Amino acid sequence: MNISEKICDVLKNEKFDLLLIFVFGELYLINKIFLSDLNLPFLRYFLRCYCNDLICPLVFLPIVNIILAFGKYKVCRFVHLLSVGFTAGLFWEYVVPLFVEDSVSDPIDLCCYVLGTIFYWIALKTKNLGGRYGRIL
User: Is the Cβ–Cβ distance between 92 and 116 less than 8 Å?
Assistant: First the structure.
């Protein structure tokens, strides 16, 4: 099987993750371009500061799973997803600010990463993808 056939095979089998990337990627852009400038004080603060941190795992984790699918793996157990989501959140909230001057650490952002990871796990469990790759929790 050549590489283009392998890519087509993986993408064909990962339609759900591709859908999540598309839907939540669009939601991220809509929030970034339009919603974060709403004149509703509390909603505006949430949309600017935390909404994208909730959305991020719903795009990042499907990308991770698509990449892992090339090796016939998938992260779908709750504890594994939580480990990946929490580690990514720690990296973005506590390592990136060491190198990016206008970036700041916020523990609530880390909670949003974890919550977004839990939403991804719920989506996987709802879709019942566990049969193909192993049990989901």
Answer: no
Given a cut of 90, whether residue 56 has pLDDT beyond it is yes
**CA nearest 61: which of 121, 106, 11, 109?**
121
Say if residues 58 and 120 touch (Cβ distance below 8 Å). Answer: yes
Q: What pLDDT does 132 receive?
A: 52
Alpha carbon distance 14, 54 (integer Å): 22
Per residue, the 3-state secondary structure of 51-119, as one string, reads HHHHHHHHHHHHHHHHHHHCCCCCCCCHHHHHHHHHHHHHHHHHHHHHHCCCCCCCHHHHHHHHHHHHH
